[in-house]
């Protein structure tokens, strides 16, 4: 199974990125796990560009990554009670992209206290007709710590939550 991960933070030391890296670590050989590295290179969404023949290469890379994936995991912090511009822009590029429709998606809330952006992200994904895997949409609080991806993957509580999410994602495909 192929999982595409999208990180809503562009920080090099992002806790959301560390959470996704820990998930990749725990996914092991059971999943082909890829963290998309070009969200910061996407131009601001413009429907005129999307409809033209000159769609930027980074947008094509995102679309190809979505095509490749069986499921998507999004981890994104909350900025000023909202989803980050990074993740919103990426999702805007996917709104009319048909292969995204009904794609199984899990949303990881990396915050130890914020929930408004998490709810907004789920609403955006529902509006886009993503197949939200509710059992894999979890708060895995890593934003208030300095744990590395390896530390997150080996922490009993974080490891258990990540494995719960991966199991829920797998279960979607076992019933197909």
Automatic annotation (TrEMBL):
SUPFAM superfamilies in UniProt: Flavoproteins
Sequence ranges assigned to domain NADPH-dependent FMN reductase-like in this UniProt record: 1-135
Family matches, as Gene3D superfamilies: 3.40.50.360
InterPro entries: Flavoprotein-like_sf (IPR029039), FMN_Rdtase-like_dom (IPR005025), NAD(P)H-dep_reductase (IPR050712)
Protein name per UniProt: NAD(P)H-dependent oxidoreductase
